[in-house]
């Protein structure tokens, strides 16, 4: 090491601090620190061997104080630390004698800095204190400006190259060899177009010719590395002239991988936004069609036609579950490839197959983003692919826990159903199910006839029958009330059987609430976990009129609209309770128009909560005399306060009287 081993560090940051520690501990330099201020030159005395500073400091007005106050730079050599080629140039412009790049671990940077400092200090100690020529550096070191520029160019992140008019590489920086993987000897033998992929070479040749005509050009292409990697680059070329004569072409290559990624991301977002806006418009059109449709058949046909005629979809169909096969049978369809329904399997081939029935069973949207690649869709994959279907979605049609089948939609490209779109389609499924529910109820109310079925359950099936076996007594149905997404049943039994009822409900996972338990009888409110007879018939606009269970066997009476297919209803009930028997079937005329008008008007005027309060009070015996249940007891089953219960009931009574009188006057 040369004599005089003290360096002055100015404006050091965290990375430079680590380098200074290495210089002090490993290379035995004494470190003196000084902030950047107007008296910087005063701090440089004979004990200072070298000045160290970040390029960012040297480039500031304060940092240029190395030449402030005089035309002569200080005799003490200056070393600037930089990260980029631009910073290196700024440091040299500010008067630095040499630059060191902070790139890598501090030990490696310290070794390089130590070598530079020793060289500069040694040169300064052997040079004359004055009379330096312009060809010398600020510390008296002979500098080759061209070498400095080349060194700075090697630190650029962009490729830099010069090409002659014969298409040969004249000069290039280290970035080009580092990115392409070719060494200098290989680069010297290669033509410029050999660095890009075959498909882009014509464009690059045309760009080179364009430089000769226009003097400047910008083109994109993909670099082909020695390892076969393809990297998108943007190339800028400019004609070089000497004394007005063109002599070569200089160019810069910039990696645009990240920029392309961002652009593609923005393009995908814009495309998805366009598609989502389009889907929302389709949904609005479908909703308008639902408002106009009056029957379930019209609803299903309108939905399929609107979806199949809208991008990005090609085909749509709606089906309902066949109780005998558990498969989904088509009821309406529209679009291209309708013969798909003739060849698709009606049920799953094995437990791993995902079909429309899966969407119904799990009550969630099922999406096949790539039909061709996913083995879960093997049951119907070939039939779909042959008709150009690349992705599909199965949407359950359910409302308040009642299923009306599934809607299936197909698209001619993969990944057609993004998460947001699935949410929109799921909401559409609920809307369709609600419309079907309204149509079924309307048809039930307006039907001229009703069909009454007497059913028998020779062994435990529905809750009322199974409960009678558990109690060894009789359990009867008082009525059924809609409660949220479920149907709650009010059951009457002997008061001594209440504990047995509670135990049975716990065993089968039913939610049981005691309404009354005083006297000889008790009334309980039950929400069974299994699908009930009441729910099955309600799906088709029917009503469970009554049911009784005695010692493990029972009977029930069901009323259905005259237009409903009785066999399909029985199949659905038997799919849940296989032992169900049909004892009798009778058809009779529905009550007159005033009664139908009254029921329709009242249902339209009551809120869901008011309807639940009214029916709960009725089935619990609130309107009997003497009352078998108090307002407090019924309010507890509904999780509301007694005053709230009375408020709902008063509003219901007012609407009931108003609706009754309006119906009477309109027919008088």
Give a verbal description of the structure.
The chain starts with 5 loop residues before the first strand and ends with a helix. The radius of gyration is 43 Å and the shape is elongated. The model is unreliable at about 65-70 and about 130-140 (pLDDT under 50). It contains 23 helices and 23 strands. By secondary structure, it is of the alpha+beta class. The strands form four sheets. The protein has an eight-stranded antiparallel sheet. Strands 2-1-3-4-5 form a five-stranded parallel sheet, sandwiched between helices. A five-stranded antiparallel sheet has the order 7-6-10-9-8, sandwiched between helices.
Describe the strand arrangement of the main beta sheet, using strand numbers: 19-20-18-17-21-22-16-23
Number of strands: 23
Oligomer: single chain
Strand residue content:
25-35%
Shape: elongated
Kindly provide the radius of gyration, computed on alpha-carbon positions and rounded to a whole number of angstroms. Answer: 43 Å
Number of distinct helices: 23
What order do the helices and strands come in, and which of them pair?
Elements: E1 6-10, H1 14-25, E2 30-34, H2 40-43, E3 50-54, H3 55-58, E4 78-82, H4 85-93, E5 98-101, H5 106-126, H6 145-154, E6 159-163, E7 169-172, H7 174-180, H8 184-189, H9 201-214, E8 216-224, E9 230-242, E10 245-255, H10 257-292, H11 296-308, E11 315-321, E12 328-335, H12 340-343, H13 356-362, E13 366-368, H14 381-386, E14 391-399, E15 402-411, H15 419-446, E16 449-457, H16 463-471, E17 474-483, E18 486-494, H17 498-508, E19 511-516, E20 521-527, H18 533-538, E21 543-550, E22 553-561, H19 566-576, E23 581-589, H20 593-605, H21 608-619, H22 631-638, H23 642-667
Helix pairs in contact: 1-5, 4-6, 10-11, 10-15, 11-15, 16-17, 20-23, 21-23, 22-23
């Amino acid at each position: 090491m040369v004599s005089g081993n003290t360096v002055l560090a100015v404006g050091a940051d965290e990375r430079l601090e680590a380098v200074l520690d290495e210089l002090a501990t490993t290379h035995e330099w004494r470190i003196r620190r000084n902030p950047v201020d107007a008296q910087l030159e005063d701090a440089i005395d004979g004990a200072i061997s070298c000045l160290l500073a970040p390029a960012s400091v040297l480039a500031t007005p304060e940092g240029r104080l190395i030449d402030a106050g005089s035309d002569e730079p200080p005799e003490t050599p200056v070393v600037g630390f930089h990260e980029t080629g631009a910073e290196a140039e700024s440091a040299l412009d500010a008067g630095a004698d040499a630059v060191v790049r902070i790139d890598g671990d501090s030990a490696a940077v310290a070794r390089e800095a130590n070598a530079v400092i020793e060289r500069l200090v040694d040169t300064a100690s052997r040079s004359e204190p004055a009379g330096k020529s312009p060809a010398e550096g600020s510390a008296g070191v002979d500098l080759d400006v061209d070498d400095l520029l080349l060194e700075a160019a090697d630190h650029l992140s962009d490729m830099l190259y010069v090409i002659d008019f014969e298409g040969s590489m004249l000069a290039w920086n280290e970035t080009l060899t580092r990115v392409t993987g070719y060494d200098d000897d290989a680069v010297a033998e290669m033509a410029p177009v050999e660095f890009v992929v075959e498909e882009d070479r014509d464009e690059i040749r045309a760009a080179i010719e364009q430089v000769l005509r226009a003097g400047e050009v910008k083109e994109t292409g993909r670099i082909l590395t020695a390892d076969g990697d393809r990297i998108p680059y943007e190339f800028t070329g400019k004609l070089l002239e000497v004394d007005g004569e063109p002599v070569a072409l200089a160019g810069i290559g910039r990696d645009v991988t990240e920029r392309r990624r961002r652009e593609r991301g923005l393009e995908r977002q814009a495309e998805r936004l366009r598609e989502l806006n389009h889907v929302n418009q389709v949904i609005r059109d479908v909703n308008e069609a639902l408002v106009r449709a009056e029957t379930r058949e019209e609803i299903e046909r309108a939905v399929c036609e609107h979806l199949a005629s809208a991008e990005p979809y090609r085909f749509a169909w709606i089906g309902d579950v066949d109780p005998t096969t558990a498969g989904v049978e088509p009821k309406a369809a529209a679009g291209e490839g309708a013969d798909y329904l003739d060849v698709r399997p009606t049920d799953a081939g094995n437990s791993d197959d995902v079909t429309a029935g899966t969407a119904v069973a799990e009550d969630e949207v099922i999406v096949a983003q790539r039909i061709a690649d996913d083995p879960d869709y093997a049951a119907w994959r070939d039939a779909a692919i042959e008709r150009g279907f690349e992705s599909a979605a199965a949407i359950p049609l359910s409302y308040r826990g009642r299923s009306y089948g599934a809607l299936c939609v197909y698209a001619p490209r993969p990944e057609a159903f993004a998460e947001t779109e699935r949410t929109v389609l799921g909401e559409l499924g609920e809307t369709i199910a609600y419309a079907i529910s309204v149509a079924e109820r309307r048809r039930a109310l307006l039907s001229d006839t009703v069909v009454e079925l007497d059913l028998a359950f020779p062994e435990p099936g529905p809750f009322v029958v199974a409960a009678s076996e558990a109690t060894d007594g009789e359990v009867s149905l008082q009525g059924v009330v809609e409660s949220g997404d479920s149907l709650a049943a009010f059951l009457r039994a002997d008061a001594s059987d209440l504990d047995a009822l509670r135990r049975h409900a716990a065993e089968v996972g039913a939610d049981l609430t005691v309404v009354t338990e005083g006297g000889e009888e008790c009334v309980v409110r039950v929400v069974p976990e299994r699908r009930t007879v009441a729910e099955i018939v309600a799906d088709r606009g029917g009503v469970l009129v009554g049911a009784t269970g005695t010692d493990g066997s029972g009977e029930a009476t069901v009323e259905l609209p005259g237009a409903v297919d009785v066999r399909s209803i029985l199949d659905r009930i038997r799919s849940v309770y296989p032992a169900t028997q049909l004892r009798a079937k009778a058809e009779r005329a529905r009550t007159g128009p005033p009664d139908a008008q009254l029921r329709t008007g009242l249902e339209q005027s009551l809120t869901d909560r008011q309807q639940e309060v009214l029916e709960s009070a009725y089935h619990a015996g609130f309107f009997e005399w003497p009352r078998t249940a108090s307002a407090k007891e019924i309010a507890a089953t509904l999780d509301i306060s007694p005053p709230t219960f009375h408020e709902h009931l008063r509003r219901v009574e007012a609407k009931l009287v108003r609706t009754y009188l309006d119906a009477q006057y309109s027919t008088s």
